[in-house]
Amino acid sequence: MSEKSDLKLAVLIDADNIPYSNVKGMLDEIAKLGVPTIKRIYGDWTKPTVSGWKPALLEHAITPIQQYSYTTGKNATDSAMIIDAMDILHSEKVDGFCLVSSDSDFTRLATRLRESGMLVIGIGAKKTPNPFIVSCDKFIYIEIIGAAEIKQEELKPAALGRNAAKSTTPALKVDSMDRGFITLLKTSVNDLADDNGWAFLAEVGGLIIKKKPDFDPRNYGFPKLTALIKSLNRYFEIDERKVENTHIKHIYIKNKQ
Fold first, then answer.
1. pLDDT tens column, 34-89
2. DSSP alpha helix (H) spans, 22-76
3. pTM
């Protein structure tokens, strides 16, 4: 399998279900996972409701695909995206797909692509139905990406003056770490633990995503998994082990009794 940075991804965006304001952050997020070699967006570009996308398409080299709405109340972009996805799949030009939508109609498409050995990443709003979320290998909430963009804006020099303290930008609503979430963490550690109970944190993170594709430390207000685990020191022991002849540290965790 290719390294993450070498994965070729087809990015297919449903313009009817995703806000254009987060496009830069969304593409930056995708770049962490692979190279977006195909970038297409689907919508009826004769409608004023999608006109805000047009500057973003030029700036980020996203190809617009025109799909007229043949009947009122029906989303014709779904079928166009699905047909294109299958054409791309059979062209064997990519290693995975990024489906950007909050529409559960793409659940079967995501499942079919995974059956063909494709990596499938979903990006959508928190309102996205669970069947679509769990049909992806990984699902990222657009609200998390939007919050990261807001923080970057606040760090710019122009924003650090007197008006910065008066910012009215709403804070990201984080998910609660309830008993079910703690149980998910603890069972994942047990699943990977060695004879002494220690598990490599990077592997734990990978297993959690397999069990819960929408898992992301940022959903809980933490930038990385390590910071999240350190906040839960009543449940876990942490061991930072230096890799010989390097400055790298590997993090291992263990459930507390």
1. 999 999 999 888 888 788 888 888 889 999 998 876 555 445 678 889 999 999 99
2. 23-33, 54-60
3. 0.82
Strand-pairing partners, residue 199, are 253
Q: How far apart are the first and last CA of the chain?
A: 38
pLDDT tops 50 at residue 170: no
Cα–chain-centroid distance for residue 182?
21
Non-local CB neighbours of 13 within 8 Å, separated by 6+ positions? 39, 40, 41, 42, 62, 100, 101
Using alpha carbons, select from 91, 83, 86, 81 the residue that is nearest to residue 39. Answer: 81
The strand ranges marked E within 113-255 are 119-124, 138-141, 199-200, 236-242, 249-255
Q: Which of helix, strand or coil describes residue 226? A: helix
Residue range 159-168, pLDDT digits in tens: 444 444 443 3
Distance CA 89, CA 96 (A): 9
